[in-house]
Amino acid sequence: MSQIFALLLLLIPMVVIHEMGHFLAAKFFGMRVYEFAFGFGKKLASFRYGNTEYRFNLLPLGGYVNFMGESLYHNDIPHDPDHFLNKPKYARLVVLLMGPAFNFFLAFGLFVLLQHQPDYIPKPYGEPFTVGWVAPDSPEAQAGLQTGDRITHLQGQPVVDRERLLHDIVLSPGETIRLRVERNGETRDLAYVCDTDEIEGIGKIQFRQAFRSRIARVVSGYPAEEVGLMPDDIIVAIDETPAFIVNTSDFNVISQLIQHGDGDTRLLRIERDGVLMDFKVPLKELEDGSRMIGISYGYESQVLYRTWPEATASAWERCVFFSTYIFRTINRLVSMKLSVKALNSPVSISRIAKEELEQGFWPFVLLMAILSLNLAIANLLPIPVLDGGEILVIMVEWVARRDLSFDMKQNIKMVGFIFLVGLMGTVLVSDTIKEFVLRNPG
Predict the structure, then answer these.
(1) Is the fold of 119-211 the same as that of 212-284?
(2) CA nearest 29: which of 89, 104, 101?
(3) Which stretches does DSSP call E strand in 129-264?
(4) Can you give the pLDDT at residue 398?
(5) Does an H or E element contain 410, and which?
(6) Looking at residue 71, what is its pLDDT?
(7) Which residue ranges make up each domain of the chain?
(8) Which of 111, 139, 167, 267 is 20 to 30 A away from residue 313, measured at CA?
(9) Would you call 83 helix, strand, or coil by DSSP?
(10) Contacts (Cβ under 8 Å, ≥6 apart) of 196
(11) DSSP structure class, residue 123
């Protein structure tokens, strides 16, 4: 599937919804709308309906609604009561706010649909976060983080869930990470300097969470079947060592415990219907020298079904969580604690869109929800030429009780335009290098 097709499928709904917010608000207040455009640059196709020209332009990387007509470029406000600049300031503010608001509504609606879908959640091996694997020679390993440690605090704050823990570390490249862990009933404080991902410019997470493991299949004629192990049994421990699954190809706890333990039998502690049971399982040696008990296993998952009211409440929580993460990312970028490499341009977004679409419909919907939320917040930043910059100018005029001069507004817009083009160019170059050089060094 083409990356360009996936990118267009992702961008078109978000851009159209954003501009539709401006458009409908303008119509509500009786404003004249000169153009409704998808894309920038040369006009590819257009049609006129009423007083508005609807355009499809060459570069499908955004869109715009033109309320200003020629007043966008010249200091001449027509004697037209329907012109944008002849409307009350509150009406202009609402029109400018409705674009980002519609992106937020889109994100919220998509999150409601997502949260209403059956949610297959792997069960963690110990709450809130038990470490199942630590990369050898990593700063985490050198600081003393070990398999089986239960992380209870990050930077002095209690760990609420896996997602927040990992996001906090991702936003902290090159910074000191302070962890509090519980190990064998004792509390230990660890500290290390977070490595930076050289490609993405974000904090590198070099440990993985432990998840509970469930027997998926018992092979006929093997020792596991003979001693009475059954599908859906939960593997709690092997030879009194905790047994769990880790989401990494570098380490398999259960396979290690079965293959490399002492003796010719394994003591498996199993949880079945909430009851703990012990099974002594002989090992069967194969021709290649490997030893097996005859099971396949996977994550123990719980399926979460939400009603529409529950999905709505959960969708709001998702919006708040991702919005907080976006604002924190912006703060880190402004304070130069995060590299511009952490930002994505259409180059990498097209790759991500293609990958998510190939995974299925709902992963693609999740990506659209998150990006729509990003678009809403980015447009509210007080940067001239963005909605937030225009809103700031109107607010300044409102407080000052006088309008800024046309020349001053044009100069402000020019500064904002130069800044935005410079930022977009930097991100585009950085992202292109990431995608075509750093990800493919050969």
Answers:
(1) yes
(2) 89
(3) 131-134, 150-154, 157-158, 176-183, 186-193, 207-211, 213-218, 234-238, 241-242, 245-246
(4) 92
(5) helix 406-433
(6) 57
(7) 3-118+344-438, 119-211, 212-284
(8) 167
(9) coil
(10) 173, 174, 202, 203, 204, 339
(11) P
Estimate the crossing angle of helix 3-28 against helix 361-379, to 10 degrees. Answer: 50
Average pLDDT over residues 148-163: 94
Phi, psi dihedral angles at 122 (to 5 degrees): -60, 135
Sign of CA dihedral 134, 136, 140, 143: positive
Note the pTM of the prediction, 2 decimals.
0.90
Which class is 119-211 in CATH?
mainly beta
How many CB atoms sit inside 10 A of residue 54's CB? 15
Average pLDDT for residues 320-324, to the nearest whole number? 96
* Domain 212-284, CATH class in plain words: mainly beta
**pLDDT greater than 80 at residue 73:** no
Overall residue count recorded for the chain in this entry: 442
CB 64 within 8 Å of CB 19: yes
Where residue 294 falls (left for φ over 0; alpha for ψ -120 to 50; beta otherwise) is left
* Of the candidates 89, 102, 121, the residue with the CA atom closest to the CA atom of residue 63: 102
Are 101 and 17 in contact by the 8 Å Cβ rule? The answer is no
| Collapsed DSSP state (helix, strand, coil) of residue 377 | helix
What is the DSSP code (8-state) at residue 32?
A: -
CB 235 within 8 A of CB 242: no
Q: How far apart are alpha carbons 168 and 170 in whole angstroms?
A: 6
Structure confidence at residue 79 (pLDDT) = 77
Q: What is the pLDDT of residue 99?
A: 96
The closest of 334, 322, 346 to 104, measured between CA atoms, is 322
| SS3 (DSSP) at 114 | helix
Average pLDDT over residues 281-288: 89
d(CA 253, CA 209) in angstroms, rounded, equals 12
Residue 172 · residue 191 · CB < 8 Å: no
Question: 429-438: which pairs have CB atoms within 8 A and are 24 or more residues apart?
Answer: 430/340, 430/341, 430/343, 430/345, 431/343, 431/344, 431/345, 431/347, 431/348, 432/345, 432/347, 434/199, 434/200, 434/341, 434/348, 435/347, 435/348, 435/351, 438/198, 438/199
Residue 128, preceding bond cis, omega within 30 degrees? yes
The burial of 201, by beta-carbon neighbours within 10 Å (0-12 exposed, 13-18 middle, 19 or more buried), is given as middle
C-alpha span between 64 and 68 (Å, rounded): 12
Query: Residue 287 has which token pair?
Result: 């021709």
Please report which residue ranges of 52-137 form alpha helices under DSSP H.
89-116
* CA separation, residue 230 to residues 169, 238, 293, 348 (Å): 39, 16, 12, 45
The amino acid occupying position 317 is: E
